[in-house]
Amino acid sequence: MKVGLLFGSFNPVHIGHLIIANYMAQNTDLKQVWFVVSPQNPFKQSHTLLHEQDRLQMVRLAIDDNAALNATDIEFNMPRPSYTIDTLAYLQQRYPSYEFALIMGEDNLPTLPKWKNYEQLLANHEIYVYPRSRTAETVLKSHPKVKLVPAPNLDLSATFIRETVKAGRSIRYLVPESVENYIKLKKFWV
């Protein structure tokens, strides 16, 4: 089975994430898309993140009963910060009959050479890239393992959602209702 991995902090998960994941699962050769909730991204400050279990729970609430989508806490028990290449190696060992591919925004492609063992990643895994605005050009777009997928581009960020909550404004339609209710219940960012 071919599985696409959408890595992220998901602080919080929002409809942009869900649209990309569902589009990839329905319009490519990927059979499922797994949300890999990262406890600590090596390129982000961790003090701004909600607890990893809360972020995982919001992803689970968001995907609900969509059989093509899955939430995984695979990185929670791995060394931190999490490196994609290490997670891929662990997943490949745990699920030897699966083929894993990465899903990333076009804006992340130019920074791929900064990733740990990125050459190994490109040699062994396909990367499904969805369009993002304000993206620097890179020769990696023409790499044989890079698949450009014309998925819908929604300029929405978790930062925008957090700021909206802090300002006391509505996030209705920006996140699933179940995620909005969870944020209100837990009083995140207020």
UniProtKB/TrEMBL annotation:
Keyword Cytoplasm: no
CDD domains: NMNAT
EC number: 2.7.7.18
Record-level GO BP terms: NAD+ biosynthetic process
Domain of life (superkingdom): Bacteria
Residue span(s) of domain Cytidyltransferase-like: 6-163
Pathway named in the protein's UniProt entry: Cofactor biosynthesis; NAD(+) biosynthesis; deamido-NAD(+) from nicotinate D-ribonucleotide: step 1/1
A molecular-function term among this protein's GO annotations: ATP binding
Catalytic activity line of the entry: nicotinate beta-D-ribonucleotide + ATP + H(+) = deamido-NAD(+) + diphosphate
Metal-binding recorded as keyword: no
InterPro entries assigned to the protein according to its UniProt record, in alphabetical order: Cyt_trans-like, NadD/NMNAT, Rossmann-like_a/b/a_fold
Keywords: ATP-binding, NAD, Nucleotide-binding, Nucleotidyltransferase, Pyridine nucleotide biosynthesis, Transferase
EC primary class: transferase
Biological role stated in the UniProt entry: Catalyzes the reversible adenylation of nicotinate mononucleotide (NaMN) to nicotinic acid adenine dinucleotide (NaAD).
Stored PANTHER family: NICOTINATE-NUCLEOTIDE ADENYLYLTRANSFERASE-RELATED (PTHR39321), PHOSPHOPANTETHEINE ADENYLYLTRANSFERASE (PTHR39321:SF3)
Family note: Belongs to the NadD family.
Listed name of the protein: Probable nicotinate-nucleotide adenylyltransferase
Gene that this polypeptide is encoded by: nadD
